[in-house]
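Hey, resending since the last one bounced:
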Amino acid sequence: MRKELLFGFSIMGLVVLATLAFMPWGNLESGHVGLLMLALVVVAIMLGFPTAFTLMGMGVIFTFFAYYFRDPNLALTNTLTLMVQRTYGVMTNDVLIAIPLFVFMGYLVERANLIEKLFRSLHLALVRVPGSLAVATIFTCAVFATATGIVGAVVTLMGLLALPQMLKSGYDIRVSAGAITAGGTLGILIPPSVMLIVYGATAGVSVVQLYAGAFFPGIMLAGLYILYVILVAKLKPASMPPLAEEERRVDLPQAYENLRRAFSDRVLPSLARGFIGASNAGVSVGQVIKTAIVALLPAIFFALFMGFLYSVVTAPAKIDEAAGLMEMGIGVEAPAEEIDEEAEEELVEMGANSSAPAQAKEEAASAATDTAKTDAPPAERQPAPSWYWWMLGIGSMLGVAFYAIFTWARLEIFKMLLGSFFPLAVLILAVLGSIVFGLATPTEAAAVGAIGGALLAAAYRRLNYQVVKESVFLTGKTSAMVCWLFVGSSIFSAAFALLGGQELVEKWVLGLGLTPIQFLILSQVIIFLLGWPLEWTEIIVIFMPIFIPLLDNFGIDPLFFGLLVALNLQTAFLSPPVAMSAFYLKGVAPPHVTLNQIFAGMFPFMGIQVVAVVLLYVFPAIGMWLPTVLYR
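The structure tokens again:
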């Protein structure tokens, strides 16, 4: 028997033995029957039964038993009614509309064939960093996973693209496999993440706040991955040797090569001299101007951003316009000079005439208010805060340093990034920015993202009937799976509550006398262990309805708990025997790369995930600062 199967059957055996040992068979209550249902569901899922239909089947059967012991005549009617109501409740949940739209966006972006260009440009841009191929792999996975959110697609594509190149360059198999599998799982944490939508709908937490809260933890986790790779490359250079000189070379266009030879290896001095003597290098002035515009794009973007930020931070303070109207409504007299005399006379006449329409009264009051506003002095802009000038100064110095080392080779790499990284960055920022800053709901932003994904695929000439057909089919398949999971989870949680399982768990946890810290540690340890035999979808839809009602008893914010869970559930894709990332990679890896080597490469990154959970717990502002600033 294979090791992973033996491991899986061992966990199943432990679940069954624990159920048999701790179940009070001589004094069974309905709550114990609910826990028995929970154990049976876990074992059935581990045996390979479909999760959604297992939840629905077990929920319906045990709901029938719960109603039967109360009133046998109404048991079937009540069970079917509950099933229909729960299904209809899922169908009318507006938040879930964002799932197929985000998934559709992801499949279109995946088929735009940007990942190869993105990996190549990032690889060249980071060539001087130790372990540059692995760092570029994690960076590419993070960006692409953010744009798609589809773990299997990212791991598979990077396995086809990055793994052969890393192995050819002499990289250790375990480090290579770990970088690909860990980087690919970032898509379930960094927004726009389907997992956060599922958690938000399950726990009743704002998806907008979850997206804002998960932004910095996702960046932190990706940064920890990159830091680990760099440290390993420094301590063990043999595991990630530097790239050969020919792999670092960037082929320049003829115009760039001419300017470099005629004037300088640096871009700005060459362009400055090229405006005068471009003909000496065999380059037209028009080509010099186009090159200058491309080279100055970072400076132009920085200037525009700082200008926009200045207009925001120095905007006049808003005056509460409702205050004056409120005073007039409660009968406080306004000074005579602030109200136009004609408007005042109209108000008096209309007040004396009880038959005057209410609309005319409102218009007269509005006219008086407008007159008062015109007499008010214009609001003055506020001075810029000190942090703005610090940001402007530091950014300017970094810009000077950047252009001091901006060579023609780096300009060519920058152009490659313009064609691969920046289109994805614009799409991601448009979707996330509209959500985080309250310009659109997640569903509306997902619709914009789906249109953006289609435009991106069309811009790279990848949008055709076959691509749209495959994307729609896969979107329908994924969305149906998630929605059926919600239906099954809703029926299962209702049955669990009817049987008193939730009440029994709550009494047991409260009886332990745990502090909030101890409860958080216990819950995260349980979720970490559940990540070994179960996938994140099963953990969210089965166990979150059990944990969420307990949070009020310990004064824990469901938003913060959700961020901890999101970080913790990264292990569900990396922990055997269900570690789907390992199987995705194994399916496209060369034959000599074994599953055990992939598992061995994933374990250090699992340890990093645990460190990330601890950091978020110790410094909750990592996740809570942005939602607090924006929404609370």
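The two ends are 55 Å apart (CA to CA).

Sorry for the duplicate.
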